Q: What sequence folds into this?
C-alpha cells in the first residue's frame, strides 16, 4: 500500500476529473455562504466545472495509486457520460429551481459530488475504492432526494431510498468481505490472475454467496427487477433535475462495475449458474417494467418503470457477456442519457410547482402551445421505444445483435416483445401531446436560455447519433477494449 | 448506369430522390403556421421536384437491368458492422418509385383544395412519409431498409391520429402495433441472418446482394426449420403490411379513420411495400422455405380474395368497401407472387402499380364527397350524378379500372396474373377469377347506389362538383389508368427485367417442386398442369 503514500503527478492526473468536480463543488458551497447574490450564476459555474473536468481527464492511462484506480477508455467513456448527464440535469432544471427559490449552491455541489462518486466507482480497480465511489454517489443522492424537504413525497422518497440504499451498501460490503475471505484480495486485477490459473471452480459456495450479495447491491442501484421497488417512489418524490441524473449515470456506472467484476472473476465466459441468472434478471425487468408502465398515469412513475425496462435491455449485455455486448451496452447507455434527459426536460419545465402530481393528461395541448418542447418529448419517446432513426434504435440494435450472435435469440425475442409493449405507453404520451384536447391549458416555465439549449442539444444528439452512430460506436469500442486488453 | 452529370445539390440521384421531401419538410417547419400559401408552395415544390427526379431516373433507366444495381450507391454507414448506405434500383422499384412520387403530388394537390386544419403539419407528415417510402424502395442494405421501413410508421401514425375521424386513436394505435409486431420479428430475423452470413463467409454484411449471393450459391447452409422460421419472420412483416387475410383487421379501421390523403397513400403505396418486401427480401433470401410454404400462402391469398370481396359486398360505408376491395385485390397480387411464373410476376408488379392508381383515385373521390357532405354512408347519397357529373365520370372510370375492364389498366394486371397462375394451378386461377367477378358486383353496386337512381336526400342538392385543386390531383391518375390500359408496354418493359430475375429466384430450380395444390382441391378432382417453360406467357 505504499502507493498511497507516494502520490506522483501521474496519480493526480489520473483522478483529475474527480478532483475538479469536488473542487468546484466546494467552491459552490463557499460561494453560497459568502456570495449569495450570485446564485443565478451557479448553473453556469457548474457547467464550466464540468467542462473543466472533461478537459482535465484522459491525459494518462494505466493503473495508479499502487494499482487501486485506473484511467482507461472505459473510465473516459463514463467520465463523459457522467458529466453529460449532470450538464443536462443542470440545463433542464435550473429554471424550475430558480422559480421555486431552491437554487442554493448545495444543490449543484451535491450533483457534482455525486458525479465525482460515479466516476470513482468506475475508476476503482479495487473493490474498496469502488465502494468509496458508490457511497459518495449514494449519500449525495439521498440528500438530493429530500431537496424539497417540506414536501411529504420528497421526504418519503428520501427515507425509502436511504434505508434501502443503506441495506444495499451493506450487502455490497458483505459481498466484498466474503470475496476477500475466499480469495484473499479485493483487487480486480489480482482476482483475474487467480481465476485465470483456475485455482477455484466457478461454483463455490462462499464465492457464490459473496458475488450474489454484490450482484444484488448493484442490481439495486441499477433498479433491476426484483430490486426495483424504490424506483417509482423515488422518481416521483425527488426533484426532477436530480432524477434526470439519478436515472442515468449512476445506473450506467453500476452496470459497468458489475460487468467488470464478473469479467475479473470469469474472464472467458459467464459460467452456468450466473448466465441464466442474468437472463432472468433482464427478462423480468423488461417484461415487468414495460407491462406495469402501461398502467401508469403519473408521468414520473411511468418514466421510472420505463427506466426499469430500459435497464433490462442493458442487462441483456451482461447476460451476453461479450466485448460486443459491453460495447452495445455503452452505446445504449449513452443514448439513454440524452433520451431520458429529453423526457425529463419537459417534466421539469411543466409548471405548477414540485408538489403537484404530473399526470399524463396535464400534457394535453402541449403540441399547440409549445411545439418545440412537444417535438423533443415526442422524439425522446420514439427513441425510448427504439424506433429509427433515433439513438434508441442504435443502442437496441447493438445489444440485440450481440445477444443473437452469442445464441441468446430467445432473450432478444423477449426484448422485442418488450419493445412492442412499450410502444403502447410511449406512444400514449405522443398521442396526449399532439392529439388530445386539453382540459386546462398547460404552461411551461418560461423557456430560458439554458433549457432551450438543453432541448436543442438532446434532440440533436438523439437524431445525430441515430443517423450517424459511427463515432459513438467507435468510442464505445475503445472503451470495451479496456477489459480484454487488461 | 451512373449519370454523374445529373447530380443536383452535389448528391447522387437516389439520395436526392429520397431526401428531397425531407428537405421540403425541414423548410416547412420554419414557416409560420399562419402562412398557408407559403406552406402549399413549398410542399408542392418539394413533391414536384421529387417527381421530377423520379422521371429523370425513368428516362435514364436501362430496361434490361435485371438486378437492382441501377444508379447504385454504396458507402459505409456503420462500418463496424459492415452496414452500408447502399441504394440501387431495378424496374420493380422504379415502377413503385414513380407511383409513390406521383401519388404524393396528387395527395398534396388535393389537400390544397380542401379545408384541412394544421395544414403545415399535414404536409410535413406526408413529405416525411414519402422519404420513408422511397427509402424503403431503393435501400439494398437490409438494416437500412429496416430503418426506412420503420420510419414510415411515425408520419402515418400522425396522419391518422391527428387528421383522422372519430375513432382515429384506436385505428392509428392498431395500425402501429400490428405493423410493428411484424417488423420487430423481422428485425430479429435480420440480426440472425447477418450472424449466419458472418459464420458462413466470415464477412460482416447486411447487404442484400451479399446475402442473396450466399443464399443462391449455397455458401450458407440453413436447417430447413431455421430457414422456415426466418422466412416466416420476414413474410409476417410483409403480409401484415399487404395485408393478407387473416392479418388484415387493422386495414379497414385505418382506412375509415384516415384522412383522404392518408387513405390514398396507405392503399396506393404502403400496402404495395408489403408485396415489394416479399419479392425483394423474403423470396430471394429463403427460396427453399418459400417454395415449401408457397401453397400455404396461396391458400391464404385465395381465402383473402373471396373473403375481401364478400365482406366488401356487405359494407355500407364507401371507404370500408374500398378498403376490403383492397384486401381482395392485394391477395390476388400475393397469389401472383406465389405462383412465381414470369407472367404472374409481371402481372403482380403491374397490378401493384395499377391498383395504386385506381384505388388511389377511388379514395380520392370518396374524399371529395366526404369533404362536402361529411358522410361516407352510401345511403346518404343516391342519384347525385346530375349534381356532380365530373366526379361521377371519374368514379365510374376508377371503378371500371378496378374491376378489370379491358382497355383500362386493371385488366392487364389481372389477366397476366390469372394467366400466370393458370400455368401453375387451374384451381387457383378459377378461385381467383370468382373473386374478381364478385369485385365487379360490389363496386358496380356502389356506383349504382351512390350516383344513379332517384335523388333521395335533399341535402345533396347543394353538393358541388370536384374543384380545381382536386381535379389537378386526380388528373394524372385518370390519364395513367387509361394510358396503361391501352398501352401497357412501357410499364411491362420496365418490370419484365425484374420479373425474369425474380422468377428464377422465386421458383425452385428443380422441376416438380412447384407449389402443390391444396389437398382438398386434389380430392375434388382438380389437377395440376405441367408448368411450361418460363417466360412463355409473354
A:
Amino acid at each position: 500500500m505504499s502507493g498511497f503514500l507516494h502520490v506522483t503527478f501521474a496519480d493526480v492526473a489520473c483522478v483529475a476529473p474527480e478532483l475538479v468536480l469536488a473542487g468546484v463543488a466546494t467552491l459552490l458551497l463557499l460561494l453560497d455562504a459568502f456570495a449569495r447574490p450570485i446564485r443565478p450564476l451557479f448553473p453556469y459555474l457548474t457547467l464550466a466545472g464540468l467542462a473543466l473536468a472533461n478537459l482535465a481527464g484522459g491525459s494518462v492511462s494505466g493503473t495508479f495509486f499502487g494499482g487501486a484506480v485506473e484511467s482507461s477508455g472505459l473510465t473516459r467513456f463514463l467520465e463523459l457520460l457522467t458529466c453529460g448527464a449532470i450538464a443536462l440535469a443542470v440545463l433542464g432544471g435550473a429554471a424550475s429551481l430558480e422559480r421555486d427559490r431552491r437554487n442554493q449552491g448545495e444543490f449543484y455541489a451535491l450533483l457534482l459530488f455525486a458525479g465525482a462518486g460515479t466516476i470513482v466507482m468506475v475508476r476503482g480497480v479495487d473493490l474498496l475504492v469502488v465502494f468509496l465511489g458508490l457511497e459518495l454517489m449514494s449519500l449525495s443522492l439521498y440528500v438530493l432526494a429530500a431537496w424539497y424537504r417540506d414536501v411529504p413525497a420528497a421526504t418519503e422518497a428520501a427515507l425509502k431510498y436511504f434505508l434501502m440504499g443503506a441495506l444495499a451498501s451493506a450487502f455490497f460490503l458483505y459481498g466484498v468481505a466474503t470475496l476477500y475471505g475466499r480469495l484473499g484480495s479485493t483487487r480486480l486485477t489480482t482476482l483475474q490472475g487467480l481465476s485465470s490459473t483456475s485455482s477455484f471452480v466457478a461454483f463455490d459456495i462462499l464465492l457464490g454467496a459473496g458475488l450474489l450479495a454484490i450482484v444484488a447491491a448493484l442490481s439495486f442501484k441499477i433498479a433491476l427487477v426484483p430490486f426495483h421497488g424504490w424506483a417509482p417512489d423515488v422518481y416521483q418524490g425527488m426533484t426532477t433535475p436530480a432524477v434526470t441524473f439519478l436515472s442515468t449515470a449512476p445506473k450506467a456506472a453500476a452496470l459497468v462495475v458489475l460487468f467488470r467484476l464478473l469479467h475479473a472473476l470469469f474472464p472467458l465466459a459467464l459460467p452456468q449458474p450466473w448466465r441464466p441468472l442474468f437472463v432472468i434478471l433482464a427478462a423480468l425487468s423488461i417484461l415487468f417494467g414495460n407491462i406495469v408502465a402501461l398502467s401508469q398515469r403519473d408521468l414520473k412513475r411511468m418514466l421510472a418503470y420505463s427506466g426499469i425496462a430500459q435497464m433490462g435491455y442493458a442487462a441483456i449485455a451482461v447476460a451476453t457477456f461479450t466485448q460486443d455486448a459491453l460495447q452495445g451496452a455503452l452505446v445504449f447507455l449513452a443514448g439513454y442519457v440524452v433520451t431520458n434527459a429529453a423526457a425529463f426536460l419537459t417534466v421539469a419545465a411543466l409548471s405548477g410547482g414540485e408538489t403537484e402530481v404530473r399526470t399524463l393528461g396535464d400534457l394535453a395541448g402541449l403540441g399547440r402551445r409549445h411545439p418545440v418542447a412537444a417535438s423533443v418529448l415526442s422524439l425522446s419517446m420514439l427513441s425510448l421505444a427504439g424506433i429509427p432513426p433515433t439513438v434508441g434504435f442504435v443502442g437496441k440494435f447493438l445489444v440485440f445483435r450481440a445477444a443473437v450472435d452469442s445464441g441468446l435469440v430467445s432473450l432478444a425475442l423477449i426484448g422485442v416483445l418488450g419493445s412492442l409493449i412499450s410502444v403502447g405507453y410511449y406512444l400514449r404520451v405522443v398521442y396526449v401531446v399532439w392529439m388530445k384536447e386539453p382540459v386546462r391549458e398547460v404552461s411551461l416555465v418560461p423557456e430560458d436560455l439554458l433549457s432551450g439549449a438543453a432541448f436543442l442539444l438532446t434532440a440533436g444528439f438523439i437524431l445525430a447519433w441515430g443517423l450517424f452512430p459511427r463515432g459513438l460506436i467507435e468510442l464505445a469500442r475503445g472503451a470495451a477494449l479496456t477489459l480484454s486488453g487488461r | 448506369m451512373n449519370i454523374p452529370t445529373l447530380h443536383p445539390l452535389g448528391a447522387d440521384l437516389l439520395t436526392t430522390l429520397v431526401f428531397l421531401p425531407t428537405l421540403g419538410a425541414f423548410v416547412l417547419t420554419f414557416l409560420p403556421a399562419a402562412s398557408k400559401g407559403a406552406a402549399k408552395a413549398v410542399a408542392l415544390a418539394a413533391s414536384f421536384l421529387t417527381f421530377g427526379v423520379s422521371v429523370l431516373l425513368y428516362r435514364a433507366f436501362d430496361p434490361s437491368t435485371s438486378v437492382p444495381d441501377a444508379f447504385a450507391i454504396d458507402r459505409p454507414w456503420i462500418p463496424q458492422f459492415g452496414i452500408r448506405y447502399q441504394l440501387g434500383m431495378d424496374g420493380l422499384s422504379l415502377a413503385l418509385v414513380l407511383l409513390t412520387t406521383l401519388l404524393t403530388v396528387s395527395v398534396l394537390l388535393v389537400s390544397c383544395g380542401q379545408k384541412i386544419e394544421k395544414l403545415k403539419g399535414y404536409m410535413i407528415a406526408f413529405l416525411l412519409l414519402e422519404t420513408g417510402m422511397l427509402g424503403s424502395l431503393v435501400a439494398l442494405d437490409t438494416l437500412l431498409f429496416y430503418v426506412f421501413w420503420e420510419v414510415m410508421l411515425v408520419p402515418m401514425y400522425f396522419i391518422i391520429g391527428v387528421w383522422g375521424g372519430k375513432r382515429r386513436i384506436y385505428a392509428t394505435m392498431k395500425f402501429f402495433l400490428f405493423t410493428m409486431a411484424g417488423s420487430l420479428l423481422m428485425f430479429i430475423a435480420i440480426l440472425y441472418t447477418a450472424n449466419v452470413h458472418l459464420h458462413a463467409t466470415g464477412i460482416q454484411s447486411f447487404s442484400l446482394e451479399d446475402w442473396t449471393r450466399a443464399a443462391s450459391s449455397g455458401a450458407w447452409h440453413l436447417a430447413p426449420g431455421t430457414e422456415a422460421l426466418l422466412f416466416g419472420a420476414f413474410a409476417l412483416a410483409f403480409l401484415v403490411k399487404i395485408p393478407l387475410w387473416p392479418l388484415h383487421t387493422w386495414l379497414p379501421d385505418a382506412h375509415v379513420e384516415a384522412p383522404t390523403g392518408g387513405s390514398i397513400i396507405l392503399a396506393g403505396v404502403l400496402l404495395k411495400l408489403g408485396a415489394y418486401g416479399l419479392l425483394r427480401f423474403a423470396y430471394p433470401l429463403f427460396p427453399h422455405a418459400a417454395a415449401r410454404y408457397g401453397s400455404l400462402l396461396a391458400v391464404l391469398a385465395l381465402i383473402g380474395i373471396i373473403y375481401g370481396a364478400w365482406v366488401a359486398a356487405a359494407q355500407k360505408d364507401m371507404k370500408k368497401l374500398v378498403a376490403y376491395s383492397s384486401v381482395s385485390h392485394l391477395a390476388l397480387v400475393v397469389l401472383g407472387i406465389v405462383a412465381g411464373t414470369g407472367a404472374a410476376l409481371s402481372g403482380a408488379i403491374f397490378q401493384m402499380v395499377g391498383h395504386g392508381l385506381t384505388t388511389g383515385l377511388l379514395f380520392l373521390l370518396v374524399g371529395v364527397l366526404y369533404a362536402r357532405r361529411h358522410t361516407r354512408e352510401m345511403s346518404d347519397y343516391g342519384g347525385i350524378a346530375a349534381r356532380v357529373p365530373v366526379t361521377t365520370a371519374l368514379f365510374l372510370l376508377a371503378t371500371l379500372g378496378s374491376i378489370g375492364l379491358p382497355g383500362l389498366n386493371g385488366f392487364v394486371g389481372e389477366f397476366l396474373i390469372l394467366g400466370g397462375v393458370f400455368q401453375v394451378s387451374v384451381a387457383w386461377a378459377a378461385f381467383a377469377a370468382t373473386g374478381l367477378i364478385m369485385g365487379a358486383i360490389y363496386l358496380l353496386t356502389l356506383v349504382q347506389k351512390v350516383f344513379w337512381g332517384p335523388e333521395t336526400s335533399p341535402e345533396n342538392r347543394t353538393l358541388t362538383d370536384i374543384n380545381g385543386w382536386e381535379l389537378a390531383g386526380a388528373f394524372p391518375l385518370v390519364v395513367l389508368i387509361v394510358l396503361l390500359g391501352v398501352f401497357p408496354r412501357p410499364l411491362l418493359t420496365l418490370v419484365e427485367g425484374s420479373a425474369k430475375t425474380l422468377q428464377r429466384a422465386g421458383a425452385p430450380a428443380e422441376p416438380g417442386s412447384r407449389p402443390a395444390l391444396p389437398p382438398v382441391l386434389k380430392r375434388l378432382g382438380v389437377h395440376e398442369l405441367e408448368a411450361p417453360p418460363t417466360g412463355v406467357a409473354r
Notes: Chain B is about 70% helix and 5% strand. The mean pLDDT of chain B is 83. The CA atoms of residues 427 and 524 of chain B lie 10 Å apart.
